[in-house]
Amino acid sequence: FFHNSNPSNSHNEITYLSSTLNHMSQQLAQQANLRERLIQDVSHELRTPLTALKASLAAIIDGVWMPTPERFALLMAEVTRFEKMVLDLERSMIQTQPTMRAKVPVNISNCLHLAIEHVKAIIEEKKIIFHVGILPVDQYVLTDADQLLQVFVNLLDNAYKYTLPHHSIEVKVEVTSRDIKTTIRDTGIGIPMKDLPYICERFYRVESSRDRKTGGTGLGLAIAKEIIIDSNGSLQIESQLGIGTIATVILPKVLSTFVSFS
Ligand code: ADP
What's the CA gap between 4 and 59, in Å, rounded? Predict the structure, then answer.
């Protein structure tokens, strides 16, 4: 290439090279911009729950709030939510794919129970009507238990974040001959049709002004979807603005004859 003896060819190549370099430097500048914006967004999102936590703790220390077990449960739920945000961010900054963890049969009902424990205090505090259907006994899916827990916590988190007091959240599990279908349905604010195709993309949030108040990262659904796809399942979000949202997780079930422990 550099030893080309034909002047017109070499001119073309230099033009090509310089336009490629131009394009590359433009892309790098765009990436740097994006990174800067991302860091600003992320630190803002992390500061919001911390400020709320600090205010609650100050109220307890100053004797404005009685330190009741319920209050501590609520603070704990806030800390767990904060921790989840950090985990989400960490995962998204460090890697582009869910970690290649070994997959083992995971009891779906146990995992859902744990996820519900994470969010129960906040749901109660928000006075949301919460209904959990009958959970199946001894049904397993092949995945990583921590990652599946993260999926359910992310979906439940969204269900209560975008649902107003006195509305409802319903969790249901259906088992077919091949799959286990978990649905989390809320009667919350819903998602506009135009945003629906993008909500599982990283950092995508519907109308940032509306979401700012809820202090999310726009990563919850993207991470949930990656984990579910990695476990050979599917995640579907259906929604109607002002009516509510249904998140459906379908995972292939492990035949119980293959499971040697509970
Ligand atoms: P976030 O951390 O912002 O909640 P997610 O990836 O979990 O990020 O969700 C992306 C966006 O999709 C949210 O910002 C919100 O606007 C919308 N969304 C997700 N779940 C729901 C829901 N159950 N009801 C209404 N809007 C939702």
Answer: 76
